[in-house]
Every structure is written in C-alpha cells, then in structure tokens.
Records
---
Amino acid sequence: MNEILVLGGTGTTGRRVARRLTALGHPVRTASRNVSRAGGGGHRLDLDDPAGWAPALDGTRALYLVEPDLRPGTDRRERLPLLVDRAVAAGARRLVLLSAYGVDEADDGHPLKAAERAVQDSGVDWTILRPGWFAQNFSETFWRPAVLSGLLALPTGDGRTPFVDAEDIAEVAAAALAEDGDRHAGRAYRLTGPRAIDFGEAAALISAATGRTVRHQDVTAEEFVAAATAHGAPAEAARRLAGLLTDVREGRGAEIGDGVEQALGRPPRSFEDHVAAAAAAGCWTPAD
C-alpha cells in the first residue's frame, strides 16, 4: 500500500500532518486507540497492545510518531521504541518523531529519551522535531478555559517563551515524511516561533484580537497546584505542569530555534498570526 501512517491522527499536530499530506496527494492513514476518532482511513493502534499493531503497520512506508500519554506516574518509555522496531521490520523506511525541547539534554529518565534513541538507531531515515510550547495551548487545549474565564493564573512570572504554531510543526513533519531525497534525514529540528514573549503579552494580544479582557496573574507553583487539583487535576500531573511552567519563569526554553527556517526556507509564524487566525475561527467564542 506504500502509505504514510500518522500516529495520534486526531491530536493537535497529528490531524494537521494528515491534512497536509492528503492535500499534497500522498496516501495517508491515521492511527488512534479509539478507531471511531481516527477518521477516514483510520486504524486502531493502542500503544499498550503490541499484538494488535500489525494491521496498522502493514504497507507503511513512513511513520509519524507521537507519544500521547506522558502523564506522571505512568512509564511509557518502552512503547515507542518497540513500535519503531515493529515498523521498520514491517517495511517503514522513514520515521519522524515528535519529541520536545530539551530532550537531547535530559537524563535517561525522560519519557521521550528512549524514543529519540530508538529512531536514531533504527537504520532508516529519521527526523526528530523538538518544539517548545504550542501557541494552540491558548486556543485549543490547556489554557483555553482560562482564556475564556479572562484569567491566566500561571507560575511563569515575566518569563518569556517563543510559542510555536502547530501548523509549522505539521508542515515540517509533512515535508520530512514525504519529500524525496534525504534533506531532512538525520536532522533534529528545534521548532519555535520568531520571538519570545511572556504570558502577559500573550494575554494582551488575545485581548486585542477578541475584544475580551484577558490577563495573566503570576502565582506560586504551590498556588497553581492547589487550584489545578481543586478543579480535578491529578496532583502529580499538576506538579509536573507547575515545574514546566516554573522553567519558563526561570528562562529555560527562551532561545529562538531556527528549525522552521532550516526545514521550510521561511520564517516561522508569529504568535500574532496565530491569535488573529484563532480569533477569526471563533476559538475563543464561548459555547452557547
């Protein structure tokens, strides 16, 4: 079948990767634990059930890899390495891994460290994507409810980060999966936006685009964890997220990466561009 398989095909990046590849005329199928959500041509692929992987991997020439479960308290380090082995054995000759900023410098306990090593040692063409915080966290996922409430209470201080648009991540992934030649082979791309901003500026930009009052309030990590758990978040997950946000406060991850320009030959999309598009699409319009 010679298809490109997109793991996590319903997720923030996966659905965009699949859409781009389809628009370019490539045969694509998505994979998801819940086949009803995998979309047209979707396959069931539960990373906790290796015995059921073969139908999804059969005929796959390239594979977009993402670990959908990085919750604290769960050990997911062996799932993607095993999938890499199975995919290569089934005939895949190109792998693109969605990793994260800083994994290359992390210790072996990081849940994505083994996945990076597995693709690098796979014996086939590979590309690793290391993005920072997604701009879509404000419009689609983590922080959208807070934006709708008007208050982003986060332990980030005036720390700055270069939010990356998931559309850029998807475009780089699609290029690495589908372009002929080896331009992207053996590359690890640090993907960011064009400049670093703090959460106060992010809130102000969203306010200006939507006409809503949105502000950022700095809180301590302990206050953030208490509020998150009061709203039902598992304590360990809240503490881990607080640690990542505190990293922003302390200036980690503020560096601008050139991965988008290296891969695509153009500058990355700005946070302002994302906010304008998200506002026009009604991402911050409350449901009736």
---
Amino acid sequence: MLSIKKLNVSVDEKEVLNDFNLDIKDGSIHVIMGPNGVGKSTLSRVIMGDNRYKVTNGEIIFADVNINELTPDVRSKMGIFLAMQNPLEIDGVSNQDFLRTAMSSHAGKNIGLYDFILKCEKASEELKMDKSLIHRTVNVGFSGGEKKKNEVLQIKLLNPKFIILDELDSGLDVDSLKIVAKNILSYKEEKKDTSILIITHLSKILEYIKPDYVHVLIDGKLVATGDYDLALDIEKNGYNKYIDMSNVIVKE
C-alpha cells in the first residue's frame, strides 16, 4: 500500500524527519507513537502533500506510484485520506456542498442530490451525528467531537484505500471515541484491503482499534517497532527509554 524510503523532511529550514523508512501492507493497521514535537503530524502532512513541508531526500510510494510531486487533490483521488488533528473551518461553505462536491470529484461525475442525501443520512446516523450539522458551515461552531465525527463521515463517503488518523482521539469523550472507532472498524471490515496509519502519543484509541504494528518515533527517526504490547509498555513507563535509544542511534 505505502512505502516510505530514506525520507528527509524539513520545515522552515529545520529537519523534522531524518532517514525515515516505513512499509505498510494492504489491510494492515500501523501506529506511530511518540511524545509531542517529534515529527508525527509532519509525517501525516507529508504523505498528504502539504507543500509547507519540503522533502529533501527519499521517496513516498503509494500503490506502486511515486507521489512525491503529486498535489494533495491527486493523492486524495488515488485513495489517501487524512483525518486531521485540528480540522479546518471553512467559512461560507456548507457541509453538504463540501461533501457532495468532494464525492463528485472523486467519482469523476456529478453525484445526484437524492443519492447523496441517502448516503449522508445513513452515515450520519451510524456516527450518531446531529443531522443539522450537514447543513451548517464546515466545522464552524462544531465541538471538538463533532469535528472529528465529521472527518469520519468524510471517510465513509469518500471510500479511501489508505486512512491516516492524526490524533483522532483528541477532543473526543469516551462515548464519542467508541462510536468513531466502531465506524472506522466497520468500514475496514467492509473494505478489507484498507490500510490505516494511526498517529498518537497516547494509547487510549488503541483499546478500540487494535494495531498490527506499533512504531515509536523520536526526533524524526523510528527507534522501536513491536505489537500492541509496545503501546502498553509506553502507557505504563512513558517514553524515556525510547528517548535514550534515540540518543544512542544519533551517537552511532
């Protein structure tokens, strides 16, 4: 699904990712964990094509295509979706128009209003979203939980192949987190080849979406890889020993 090879990334002339490597197979769930400020969100934005982040070396291969030079809209149409940590507010654009336009762009044809309403209402009910949110301006006045549910609503309507969840659990109470996780898992069960990359510094979301692989990112490098037990170790003991690992790697 995705292969990142020897990736170096800088922002504002500061290197954030250094010789970063990661392979994600079809249908697998990976987690990138690490304390704040180590490059987790940078990784998500680079995969999505944010031009504020400069790739100085390496390549990102998605579905056997080098996507380094592709714009975010092209990457989106290829099947990559980023659920953002802080979803943007788009003043003056209704959620309904935004979602229907995005669906039509992905489908390469106009999605009829009736078909859109049926799909949107079904997905909203599954997410236990207030139906009035569909007719309001995108994310304006939404609570943190409503914004995150709106991100998952987009997943359910746009049918991506590769989903990046950047700090999805931030802003969600326990009940909303369970609902969101349930919807993501049901989507993956329906589309079994879908791969998921979860970016987080806490393990709470992993209680609901069990990963195949857990990676620890420190100072722009992966310093450890394991299974769910690695996340439990971090929850219990913190990141200090992994920070020490990073210092050893740098010295070597």
---
Amino acid sequence: MKKPGRSGGPVGGALWRDAAAFAARKHSGQLRRDGRTPYFSHVVRVAMTVSETFGCHDEEVLAAALLHDLIEDTTTDYEDILDRFGRSVADMVAALTKDMSLPESRREAAYDRRIARADWRVRLVKLADAYDNLVDSVNDPRGTQDLPRRVDVCHRAIRLAGVDATRHKQTRNAIKALRGLLERFATE
C-alpha cells in the first residue's frame, strides 16, 4: 500500500475520506458558536453543500472544503496539508485562510483579494462556507445580531465568484442557491 500524501494519494483512493478523518481529528473538541455543535459538522456541511447543492464532486474540492478552516482554527499549517494532500488542496486551503496577524479592517480586503486571484474552486468552497454559516445562524446564540455580517459575507462571495459563472455550472448553481437562501432570510 502507498503512504497517504503526495507520493500516491490516500490509501483507498478517496482523498475526501482521508481529509474528513484528518479534519475530524484536528477539530476534535472544538464547538460552533452555539456551544453545543461540534465544529467538524460545519466543514462536513460545507463539503456536502459543494457536492449535493452545487453539484461539484471533484475530490480535491471536497478535500479543501473539509480542510478549509484547519490553518486558521487549529495548529495545522500549510506544510501539514501539503505533505498529506498535495499542492492543489494545500493551495486552496491557504487561499481560504484569513491572515489573523492583520488588523480586522485590512484582513477582509486582503482575504477577498487572495480569493479573487485563486483557482475558481476556492470561490466555490467560499460560497459553500458562506451558505452554511448563513443557514447555521439560526443556531447562533447571538440570534440576528450577527446576521448582517453573514449576509455581507454572502454578497461578497457572490461578487467574487461572479467571474466563474459563465464557465462553471457548479458556480451558477452555487450563486443561485445562495441568492435563494438570502431571499428567504430577507423575508423572515
């Protein structure tokens, strides 16, 4: 059997499966803002949104979706992801990672610039992340307090991904789904 990582991919050939197990271990003990939901459920929902709602079944995209918060929220670094999942996945995860050393006022603009320059699949994962965070806002103990920020993130994700809509059906599906969700939240 080949060793997982760049030398031949994960054992069994399912990159997303290895990414799910890795993310589950790294996010172990972390909870969502509601203080009850395991954090790992968020990354699984993001991957499921990419696959089932947006129609993208690319193994690298699903792996990146499962791993997208590791650098930002755990002790995992780029090299850990590179060694285990390869450059494409590691680069997507890095693009989805905010630079927490920047002041918040500059952090979001730098993040948006990095996402805009990245592979279109990064923007697809960002759309799924925004989608899940908006859906999950009903479980947030802060209620509607954080809703305007989450709505803003959704609109930014749609703007960034707009360039991909003509070339990628998955992006068109994603934008349509996220706009539909925003409409539902606007009428509630």
---
Amino acid sequence: MKTTVSGLIVAALFVAAGCGSDPNELVAPRSQPLLEALETTIIGQPIVYPEGQAQVTSAVLTFQPGEQTGWHHHDAPLYAYILSGAVTVDYGPDGTRTYIEGEAFVEALGTSHNGMTAGDEPVEILAVFVGAEGVANTVLDE
C-alpha cells in the first residue's frame, strides 16, 4: 500500500510538535506561515511514497549558466526549492516551466524531463528526496 508523502510529513510533524489542529503551527512559530503543503507534483501527479525503509536525501545542486541536467526521471518524490537564479524544465508533452528564486515544487515522478539554467547566472536548488532504500532518486535516461 502506498501512502502520500504530504500525509506522512504532516502526521509526523503533528505528533513531534505536539501542536493543535492548525497546520501552520506544525512547522514554524505563529509568526511564520507554513511554506508549502503539496499533494501533487508540478505536472499534477499524486505524490506517493515508495515502498520500503524510508530514506531522506538532501543536497544543494548548483548549475552554471548554460548547463543542463540531461534527460532524467525520479523514482522517489523530490521537493525542490530554488535558492537563487532560475531554472527552466522541459517535461516533453507536459510542457515547459520556469522556476525562479523563492519558488518550491514537487518534481514529476517517473516522467522524463531536462532542466537548464535560465538566464546568465548560476542556479542553486535545495533538493530533498523522500525515498526509500534501494529506490533510485534520479535515473538518467538513455
């Protein structure tokens, strides 16, 4: 049985924080609103958690002007937050989207896409994979 990522995260934070029923209290003090509460990927797919032992992986990715990721897909949910710069992602038949500093999204699952810097400055992305042991976070397409 697959479980939605957002449901697991909210439930875990609710229990850990010992907070009331207001979801904004689960992550930050009352003066700071909840950053995101997403249930679908950027192309509208439901976010599902892979089977197996949970494994959360994070990294800050930096791409120089003109650099591309190459066509790839993700087998584990990826939450991405643009720290600086801008990136354009081509989802093939699902269109192209550009993300700028301060934007966050859950990347497409199992759908090939190619990211490239947008503009003439580097882009930095905080990438948090909510996966499982033995499940590839990123798979390069051939």
